[in-house]
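Final paragraph of the annual report: two paired records, presented back to back.
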Amino acid sequence: MAVDKSSVVRVERVVPLSRVYWGRRRNRAAKAIKLLREYVKRHFKKAKRVVIDSEVNEYIWQRSIENPPRRIKVVVSFNQDEGVARVFLARD
């Protein structure tokens, strides 16, 4: 199945995750993953699924469950035909 390049949108975003620090310490990293997923769904309304790359997951969990990063720079690749948004870690 060939994917038409015009149907794939790539956007680089900085997602603020500082809101997870309002909650309990023991579930901040898990909450940051949920917040990232909600952020992508909110900005790509036609996304039926959000797939988070393992590098993003490891980056959020790298400082344990209590201390996730306050913001993360990601690249969202949205395939309009399939309705799938894939989230990758941005390379600087």
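The closing record of the year follows.
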Amino acid sequence: MATQQLATFTIGEHLFGINVLLIREINPNTSFTPVDLAPEYIRGLMNLRGQIVTIIDPAVRLGMPQREITSASCCLVMKTTREVEDREDASELAGETVNDIVGLLVDSISDMVSADTREIESPPANIGDIDGRFMSGILKMENRLLIILKTSEVLKEGK
């Protein structure tokens, strides 16, 4: 049985997950500097131990309004393409990373989920207002629907 480890988090009322192998770290720091003339989905830049990280608001990319930052908010700092290309399972992660360091601003972190890949269903055309192109799959959990985020679409520049 093939399984996938998913880090889960909330954005608005939705529960999302991404492959844990794509995450470099979960950082509680939500202090960043806004960038003039940047697209609305780019919330700003953060200095992470001397490295500049672009902070992306996935809610805005998904068509939701920008949310207030709370004490539960945090940034998922994503691995770069270079960090995953030498892994044995690199083909599984191919296309889901970018060359620069980016962070995803999320409302809160939830549990780690181990999902049987056979239970992950194809994404529908949409869930609520979320366009299906941002989903790589869905997982029906006991009392909730887990949307597996297609990071390649969320991280892609433009609309």
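Helices lie at 58-61, 81-84, 90-93, 151-155. This concludes the annual technical report; the extension proposal builds directly on these records.
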